[in-house]
Amino acid sequence: MEKYKIIMTGGGTAGHVTPNLALVPELMKENFDIKYIGSKDGIEKDIIKNSSNMEYFGISSGKLRRYFDVKNFSDPFKVVKGMVEAYKIITKEKPDIVFSKGGFVTVPVVIAASIKKIPVVSHESDITPGLANKLAAPFCNKLCVTFSESLKYIKDNKGVYTGTPIRKELFEGSAIKGKRLCGFNDNKPVLFVIGGSLGSKVINETIRSSLKELVVKYNIIHICGKGNFDSSCKDIKGYVQFEYVSEELPHLMNAADYIISRAGANVIFEILALKKPNILIPLSAKVSRGDQVLNARSFKENGYSLVIEDEELTKEKLLEQLEILKNDRNKYISNMRESKGKDGVSNIVAVIMNCVKEKK
Questions:
Q1: Domain 4-163+342-359, CATH among 3.40.50.2000, 3.40.190.10, 1.10.10.10, 2.60.120.260
Q2: Is there a common fold for 4-163+342-359 and 171-337?
Q3: Of 9, 124, 160, 266, which has the maximum CB count within 10 A?
Q4: Annotated binding residues for UDP-N-acetyl-alpha-D-glucosamine
Q5: Which pLDDT score is estimated for 212?
Q6: CATH placement of domain 171-337
Q7: Which residues are annotated as part of the binding site?
């Protein structure tokens, strides 16, 4: 069987890293040697080193911003430096292909690969392409998308509707282990709350202000984000908080009866895959490019989710919507079972293989 080499890249948030890890087992079946390029000190460095045996290369990276910041004047130089560093790595490693999951660290990697005439496949999680993928698109051979609606935003016939890669470990999670990890030993339903890999201040505050009412009806698993642990709540029975989880996440998600989450594409498709009744609280378009608002709208229209807008989130609204979700639980599960979501892992690996074979 012919041996191939792939360099993967993606970073800035866990959502730009974990889908790469979902592809690894299938790529190994296709006899790929896999390396990773990320930033020197980003979240992706720890995730990759803790979750895989991939060799990791760190490069300089400047953040891409849509708003004014004094760092906008210095960060382009970091991007150029990162491109030089990526070029040297790619020259030395001689990959057959580069796969990019997005995030600002990927731009210099994709450009360097293009200069070396190495095929590049990228993946966009959200309905509209992020800034990094917009900048990288001219240098890509193919841009895989999670939502079919995304194809209209991609030029030059590069778009491929593949769905998003879901880690097989997600389906191997044990609800029993998840409850045991949290010390839950009664029959109350489990409410799982996650505000993205970096946490959400407004979700954290709303959940904690509602604990008196919530713990009467639910056991609560709260992923609050790094640095957001609240020691004043640590002794509340039926409430367990984690700053961040990795290997335990499949067990905790499988233990959930209901989920409250931000609306990043990766997490909402994991929720859909597990068919968990859910409330999405998308990050406001006032502080983002609005991708989560569009993701949540799509899930609401398909009958997969209830949605609370970030600006409308209050304790009263949350408790009211949870009651609605609880009453309509079976309807949401039924809608999710009828989902025509694609098997992202096999589809994306097929695109990668086609690009490799076309090059040869």
A1: 3.40.50.2000
A2: yes
A3: 9
A4: 13-15, 167, 197, 292
A5: 96
A6: 3.40.50.2000
A7: 13-15, 167, 197, 292
Q: Which residues of the chain have pLDDT under 70?
A: 62-76, 360
Q: What ranges do the domains of the chain cover?
A: 4-163+342-359, 171-337
SS (H, E, C) the chain: CCCEEEEEECCCCHHHCHHHHHHHHHHHHCCEEEEEEEECCCHHHHHHHHHCCCEEEEECCCCCCCCCCHHHHCHHHHHHHHHHHHHHHHHHHCCCEEEECCCCCHHHHHHHHHHCCCCEEEEECCCCCCHHHHHHHHHCCEEEECCHHHHHHCCCCCEEECCCCCCHHHHHCCHHHHHHHHCCCCCCCEEEEECCCCCCHHHHHHHHHCHHHHHHHCEEEEECCCCCCCHHHCCCCCEEEECCCCCCHHHHHHHCCEEEECCCHHHHHHHHHHCCCEEECCCCCCCCCCHHHHHHHHHHHCCCCEECCHHHCCHHHHHHHHHHHHHCHHHHHHHHHCCCCCCHHHHHHHHHHHHHHHHC
Task: Report the pLDDT value the prediction gives residue 230, as an integer from 0 to 100.
Answer: 95
